[in-house]
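Researcher: I've been going back and forth with a colleague about how Putative siderophore transport system permease protein YfiZ might be arranged in three dimensions. Neither of us has a model we trust, so I'd like an independent prediction. The organism is Martelella mediterranea DSM 17316, in case that matters for your notes. Sequence below.
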Amino acid sequence: MRRQVTIASGLGGGGKVFWLTVAVLAVVVLAAASLAIGTRGVSFSDIAAAIAGHDETIGEAVVAMRIPRTALAVLAGAALGLSGALMQGITRNPLADPGIFGVNTGAALAVVIGVAWFNISSSNAYIWTAILGAGITAVFVYLVGSLGRGGATPLKLTLAGAATSIAFASLVMAIVLPRGDIAGGIRSWQIGGVGGATFSRILPVLPFLVVGLALAFISARKLNAMALGDELAAGLGENVALGRAVAAVSAVLLCGATTAVCGPIGFVGLVVPHACRLIVGVDHRWLLPFSALGGGILLLASDIIGRIAGRPGEVDVGIITALVGGPVFIWIVRRQQVREL
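Model: Here is an independent structure prediction for Putative siderophore transport system permease protein YfiZ. You can compare it with whatever you and your colleague have in mind.
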């Protein structure tokens, strides 16, 4: 008989709802700041007018250009935060992250190969190629990390992912360097950023993000069961292989689609789930929505900081998240000692 699985959590229901409300408000406030802050500052009246569809004044036109960028930062951050939480839940590895596991780099390599050798140019081709590259890389890293005694341990998976990421990054450079016709655009995209976003770039990726989001929340209860161990989860009536496969497909869709439109942005999937666990504990029914909101908050804040720090230009969000995520990665290694979650 199937039994309910109870997962320990950090706060009671009321406390979680309170922090969920705070997170939603933080996204709204940062989105407004993203519309207002840049090389040219704009007023609240310009923001309100631009949201209403007006673009008569310079300020309103500037806000209109920033709206797609802000929307992309929220969507990309949510997708990366979710994919990191899913990867950590699937592998029970505190260091799991699309960047550390090389999944982002695999998606980027696939796109570069597609551009350089097959002349892909459409948004759908970019997205499907990136998702294919992310999926192949995820399977490859898991297989390599499963070799030897003990199977897929957190340390082996992390080392396999790091080695794969370095190797694929070198391959990207080897492909791009002789191709001066694509080198400039690829190098800029490879840093990872949300600048130059338009709704025509965002709309093709939305179906993939929606499907990935739906699969993620479907996986929440199964991830809770798998956190108790595969044997116990199976004893409670869960199909462990199916649950892991659904969660993995969700993570690949979210990561691959985001990489296609933004480039490989690292550390969001590492930092955000750990921060959210301090608030809501390990119950994925709460952790996943908090990770989505937290990812949006981190990417919006990073984009705003990059605009302020780089004036009159800007610093891409991929650089800011790396500066934030590097120290957090070291802290997690020292604190967790690469134990399982």
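Researcher: What would you highlight for our discussion?
Model: I'd start with this: The first helix runs from residue 13 to 36. After that, consider the following. DSSP finds 15 helices and no strands in the chain.
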